[in-house]
Write a structure and sequence with these properties.
Length: 316
C-alpha cells in the first residue's frame, strides 16, 4: 500500500507543478507587522503575485526572534502554497542559540532565493551624549552596565550586532529583547532604551528628522544611502553584522515548484520599481539561485555559531 501511495505521489507531483499555482500563496513573515521583514515582504508580494498569476497573502506569525513562524513553515504541507520570508535569526542562528529547536534549517526547509541584503545602523536616543562609536565605547567602559540596547528578539541580527560590539569592544551593555523590530524601535525612540541597531529600511527617515542619532553602519562597507556615516569596523576592525532575508519553502516541496518560485521572485526583486524602492531605503536585492542561497545559509550558520559560543548567548 505504501509503495502504491508513493507511486501515485510521483505521478501527480509533476502535474501539480505544471499547474502551480492554482490558488493563493501564503507568505509567512515570522515577525509582527511594521518591522523590516514585513516591509520587504509587503513590497515584494504584489509583484510576485503579478508574475505568478495568483494572490500572495502576507501573514505575520511573530515570536521568539522569528523561530515560531519559521518552525510552522518547516512543518507545513510541502505543496508550494506556504513559503516564508526567513531571516538570519530563524535560519542561521536559531540552532546554535537553542539546541532543542523544533526544526533544522537545511534539513527541513528548501531555499528558494536570498531576497535582499541590508545593513543595520547603530542609533542612539538623543539623550545619549555619544557622537560616534569611540565615544559610545568610552561611556560603556566608564559605567559598565549603564547603557542598554533594544533588539527585535533573541537571535535576531539586531541581537547579534549588539553582542558583537560588546565582544570586540570589551564592554558591558545590557540587552533588552522585544517582540519584533517595530516595538524595539518605539522603545528606543521614546527613550525607554539608549540605543539599538535599526534596519535602514525603517530608520532612515527618523535619522533625517533628528529623532535619533546615527553613529555608524554595521556592514563591512559604508552605506550608499548614508555615505558619510562610518562603519563600526572603522573603530572595531573585523566588525560585520549585515542582515539578510530570503524565501524558503518546506523541504519536500517539488523542485519544479521551487524553480518556478525562484524565477518569478528573482524577476520581482530586480524589477526597476522594486530595485528603486529597496535602494532608496538602503537594501540591495539579490535573487540568487536555490543552490547559492543554500551555500550562503550554511556559511552563515557556521559564522554566527562562533559568536553565539564566544558571547555565551542564550535563547531566553
Amino acid at each position: 500500500m505504501k509503495k502504491l501511495i508513493l507511486l501515485l505521489l510521483l505521478i501527480t507531483l509533476p502535474v501539480a507543478a505544471q499547474q502551480y499555482p492554482s490558488k493563493p500563496v501564503r507568505l509567512v513573515v515570522p515577525f509582527p507587522p511594521g518591522g523590516p521583514t514585513d516591509v520587504v515582504s509587503r513590497l515584494v508580494a504584489p509583484k510576485l503575485a503579478e508574475l505568478l498569476g495568483q494572490q500572495v497573502v502576507v501573514e505575520n506569525r511573530g515570536g521568539s526572534g522569528g523561530m515560531i513562524g519559521t518552525e510552522q513553515v518547516a512543518k507545513a504541507v510541502p505543496d508550494g502554497y506556504t513559503i516564508i520570508m526567513g531571516t538570519i535569526g530563524g535560519l542561521a542562528v536559531a540552532k546554535s542559540l537553542n539546541p532543542r529547536l523544533g526544526y533544522d534549517t537545511l534539513r527541513d526547509l528548501a531555499p528558494i532565493t536570498q531576497s535582499v541584503s541590508v545593513t543595520s545602523i547603530l542609533v542612539v536616543h538623543p539623550s545619549v551624549p555619544a557622537k560616534n562609536v569611540r565615544e559610545l565605547l568610552a561611556i560603556a567602559k566608564s559605567s559598565p552596565g549603564k547603557l542598554n540596547y533594544a533588539s527585535s528578539g533573541n537571535g535576531t541580527v539586531t541581537h547579534l550586532a549588539g553582542e558583537l560590539l560588546k565582544l570586540l569592544g570589551k564592554v558591558s551593555i545590557v540587552h533588552v529583547p522585544y517582540k519584533g523590530g517595530a516595538p524595539a524601535l518605539a522603545a528606543m525612540m521614546s527613550g525607554e532604551v539608549d540605543m539599538s541597531y535599526e534596519n535602514s529600511l525603517i530608520i532612515t527617515p527618523h535619522i533625517r528628522s533628528g529623532r535619533v542619532r546615527a553613529l555608524a553602519v554595521t556592514g563591512a562597507t559604508r552605506s550608499k544611502l548614508l555615505p558619510d556615516l562610518p562603519t563600526i569596523a572603522e573603530t572595531l576592525p573585523g566588525y560585520n553584522a549585515s542582515g539578510w532575508y530570503g524565501l524558503l519553502a518546506p523541504a519536500a516541496t517539488p523542485k519544479p515548484i521551487i524553480a518556478r518560485l525562484h524565477v518569478e521572485a528573482a524577476k520581482a526583486l530586480h524589477s526597476p520599481d522594486i530595485v528603486a524602492k529597496l535602494s532608496s531605503q538602503g537594501a540591495e536585492p539579490v535573487g540568487n539561485t536555490p543552490e547559492e542561497f543554500t551555500a550562503f545559509i550554511r556559511s552563515e550558520i557556521s559564522k554566527w555559531a562562533n559568536l553565539v559560543k564566544a558571547a555565551k548567548m542564550r535563547a531566553d
